[in-house]
Amino acid sequence: MASSATTGNCSATTATTYLLLDLNGNLHVGDQPTPNAIEALSRLSGLAQSTLSSGRQLRISFCSNSSKESTQTLVSRLRRMGFTDEEAMPEGSVFTSLDAARRLLVSGQKKRRTLLLLNEDAMQSFQDEDAEGRQSRYFKPPQSTLPADLNESQQSALQSCDSVLIGLAPDLMRYEWLTEAFRVLTGEYASKDHHQEERPDPLLVATHSGRCLRPGDGGPLALGPGPFVQALAHAADLGEDKVICVGKPERAFFAQCLEGMGWKRREGSEDQAWIVGDDARQDLSLPQLKNGEEDPLQGLKVRRGLVKTGKYREGDEEKVEGGGSGDVGVWDSFAHWVDDFVREWKSCDNQ
């Protein structure tokens, strides 16, 4: 099943089409590829390879809100699922919300110290860049430990934090650790700062604001990090500028993915992008721009494909927001989307 979003959209002979493909729910659900996804991705990769010497090019990237494991672990798991074609999924082609969060936390002029409410594996994405001997920029809660059980040194490190990063970390989404996050965000510990240095304003960073997810075993939906982010923002009375979501569907996240693929905003460009995923809100809905905010995707035609796998529920296509009318299509699976995309691409070549 597809909508009219697949027809009449041939790009110029000098334009580039960028594919931003969701992973879990689109190419795979849990540890199982979606039907014919591996073969479909290889077809797509072959098409992209064939355009390298032409003016009209195709580039592919994988953009994921995955925050339960490091990008390296995620790629290794994809290989075990059968996505072993390194031309179809090369190293460096997977960009996650953890990657975006790390860039944000190290980009400020003032050095932040961040409480990481992440799974142990996901914490591998946050390695200190300071010279040996300096205080860590991250506090990583020891697994299976409550705040009351921390030693004096750990307590001091926790209380020196001025920001909180939340991802998918079920074991840490409990009262004791959420209370510590609340204390960091309200400046409760600021008066105890023995370093006598000015702290940056508190900041709450979310890998994404997803309300729910489909567990790897295909079981019932489970809570995502979004509800916990909202609870902390409300409890700490944080303004909009003190709560930052770095993952999908933020326009800045997609722009970072595109820039990693070589995209640059050009006046009069006919470049276009496809965003394909299973979540109408988190994968496909582009947030409204705030007053005076510049669109990081300006000049790029964005088309979106919703697949009926993963978290999809009947009627989800009505929940896609932002963008222009007629730019959203619905397919039974990623493989079905690839069938139509390849057919359209070749049809355009013959015009």
TrEMBL record:
GO function terms (MF aspect): phosphatase activity
Pfam family, one: Hydrolase_6
Region (Disordered): 127-148
One Gene Ontology cellular component annotation held by this UniProt entry: cytoplasm
Stated name of the protein: Uncharacterized protein
Lineage: Eukaryota, Fungi, Dikarya, Basidiomycota, Ustilaginomycotina
Signal peptide: none
Cross-referenced PANTHER family: 4-NITROPHENYLPHOSPHATASE-RELATED, HALOACID DEHALOGENASE-LIKE HYDROLASE DOMAIN-CONTAINING PROTEIN 2
Domain of life, source organism: Eukaryota
InterPro entries: HAD-like_sf, HAD-SF_hydro_IIA, HAD_sf
